[in-house]
Amino acid sequence: NIGFTDTVTNGLLASMSFTGSIAGQGLSLDMTQTGGGLNITFSPQPGNAAAVYASHMTGSAVLTTSTGVLDGSLDVTTVWSPKAAVVAGTCVADAVPSTASFNGSLSTVLNGTLTGVKFTGALTGNWTNAAAFDGCGPASPTNFVQWDASFNGTITNPSYPTLTTFLSTKEAAFQQVTLGATFKRVNPDGTIVSLTGSGTAGASGSSVGAISISLSDQNNMNLNLGIDNTRACSDPAYFTASIVTSGGAVMGNGYTLNCAPMIKYIDGYFESVL
Question: Which pTM value belongs to this model?
Fold first, then answer.
């Protein structure tokens, strides 16, 4: 049950709007709430005034599936890329997304009932060089997709304290992805449990070449971990790790056992990292 309207300016499609709802087995999309619907704005294609492309899309809806309920709003902006991709051997221009954001919540569902686990917040992403990237040429240190993404919100469950979460990742250098994460929970007695971390992942061809991760908790206990897949797993430098207190005492160190990364603690206990 969908309603549709559009506008035309100077003979060209300028906008489209959809409202209403769609229902099917195991899936429904409801855009009937106030402000609900999908809106698309069109702009003339650069160098081709007789054609348009979808330059901006906004939407607000409730999407219900057998495993979750997604309730929120979406905002996507595109830009025109003169070299978007190779199609049938020919380099073609096209619209590519430059920014996207989702604000709302995701509630998990099990056997048709809300489980109580709910993710609420803002998910954003940016393709920072969308218009300049040459999608028809080979990737190189001067021609690669530069992007960033983040999630800022909360995870709630009636059985546990609220978990405040911030996650970020980006690729601003060729084949080098950086990661960031912060988790914080306030217990009923007022004590705070937190975990803050950062890391890098470098690509090597089609695989991850090296990973480096640093984590610290509310007591400044620090974990530093590195995996270098460019080395043989029998090389001691393949996997390195250490757990150190705020005072500098070493609580554990990394090693490999049959090429599996392991941590051994000062009390003799050991466990696999993966």
Answer: 0.85
